[in-house]
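Retro notes (design track)

What went well: tokenization of the new backbones is finally stable.
What didn't: we kept losing track of which sequence belonged to which structure.
Fix going forward: every design gets posted as structure first, then sequence, in one message. First example under the new rule, 418 residues:
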């Protein structure tokens, strides 16, 4: 966990709360090879559950970000954390079929959005630009740690006790995260930024060339990253099945290895944000997006290759696909007026996670089209190629930042804390 530059442990505690919040996020993906049989789902139906989650999360981010501009990020973060704990327990108790899983997994998504963009807003208020990339990087890294924890917990419990208890174990994370959030933010000011006369959303965000290119880049990044995350455990399980593992053992190993790839994402997030503080946002974004796109076009064709090759390429994939996330977030905080940061993050969330919601569905549909009917696809390359298209767009957006107006310095005044 990070060492807080202010020395009071606030950043460490906030990141730990976020880790616990996200420790349910991969429970469905890690259980997918089992759930396809238990819930009688095609690949397209399985992808639709991930799509519903991403759409719910996109709407949640939109609503909570808009609300944070008006009532303060601290209040929204705390409210969302409480809702997340309740939704996680409801999912664990009631998801027993495709229909119930679809509804309750979407409910988890709807509750969680207020613990992400609001945390970015809290960091933007607390840290100056020269230290902000590092702080946001640690926040994104803490989410990756939560995803890895989710995969490990699910991978341990699923083969031994079944998916209902695996869901329950994963649901403990948001409950503990909500309990930690309250003492962490108890003394944190609830800032509502005053809006300057003559400044409007249309000019400050939609008319801001740099902000819109960052939002477009984030959208393409989300398509690639969220599509990959949704299907990664199933792909790795398929790879282990090809090499001769039993079905349950392949699922367990796929969950563990996916967790390892999320840990490479943790390293990327915690390092790339700080690197962009020194080298500049554009240079880091360009390099990461280009390598990630190359991995998307390659990874799916390696399903029958030796495990060492799959691990090496997958680790690079996990590092580069997530590494640009803190850089994109930090750059956006520097490109718009603080009073409209919540609105900018809301727009970014809507289009970014909307694209991320469609990606797993397209991936699943391509998987169905390129494989014979059945529960064990063997051709994965074309499905991963659909994700690579997003990587190419993200690369172009990063390259085009050179022609965008430079980010304006932080502007706007703070209202009294509430």
């Amino acid at each position: 966990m990070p060492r807080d530059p202010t020395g009071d442990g606030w950043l460490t505690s906030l990141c730990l709360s976020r880790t616990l919040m996200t420790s349910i996020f991969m429970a469905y993906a890690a259980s997918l090879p089992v759930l396809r049989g238990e819930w009688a789902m095609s690949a397209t139906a399985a992808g639709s559950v991930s799509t519903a989650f991403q759409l719910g999360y996109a709407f949640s981010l939109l609503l909570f970000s808009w609300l944070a501009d008006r009532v303060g990020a601290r209040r929204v973060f705390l409210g969302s954390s409480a809702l997340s704990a309740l939704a996680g327990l409801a999912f664990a108790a009631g998801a027993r079929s495709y229909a119930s899983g679809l509804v309750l997994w979407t409910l988890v998504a709807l509750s969680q959005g207020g613990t992400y963009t609001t945390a970015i807003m809290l960091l933007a208020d607390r840290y100056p630009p020269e230290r902000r990339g590092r702080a946001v990087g640690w926040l994104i890294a803490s989410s990756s740690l939560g995803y890895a924890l989710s995969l490990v917990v699910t991978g341990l419990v699923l083969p031994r006790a079944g998916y209902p208890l695996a869901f329950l174990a994963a649901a403990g994370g948001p409950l503990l995260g909500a309990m930690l959030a309250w003492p962490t933010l108890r003394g944190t000011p609830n800032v509502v930024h005053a809006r300057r006369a003559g400044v409007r959303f249309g000019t400050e965000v939609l008319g801001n060339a740099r902000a819109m290119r960052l939002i477009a880049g984030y959208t393409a990044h989300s398509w690639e990253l969220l599509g990959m995350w949704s299907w990664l455990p199933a792909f790795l399980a398929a790879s282990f099945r090809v090499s001769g593992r039993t079905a349950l053992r392949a699922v367990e190993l796929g969950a563990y290895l996916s967790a390892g790839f999320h840990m490479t994402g943790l390293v990327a997030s915690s390092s790339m944000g700080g690197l962009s503080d020194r080298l500049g946002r554009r240079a880091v974004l360009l390099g990461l997006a280009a390598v990630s796109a190359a991995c998307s076009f390659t990874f799916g064709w390696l399903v029958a290759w030796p495990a060492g090759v799959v691990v090496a390429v997958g680790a690079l994939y996990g590092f580069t696909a997530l590494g640009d996330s803190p850089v994109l977030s930090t750059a956006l905080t520097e490109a718009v007026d603080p009073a409209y940061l919540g609105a900018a993050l809301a727009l970014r969330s809507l289009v970014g996670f909307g694209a991320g919601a469609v990606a797993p569905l397209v991936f699943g549909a391509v998987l169905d089209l390129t494989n014979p009917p059945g529960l064990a696809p063997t051709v994965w390359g074309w499905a991963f190629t659909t994700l690579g298209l997003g990587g190419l767009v993200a690369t172009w957006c990063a390259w085009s930042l050179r022609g965008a107006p430079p980010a304006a310095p932080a502007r706007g005044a703070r209202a009294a804390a509430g």
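Added context from the reviewer: The two ends are 29 Å apart (CA to CA).
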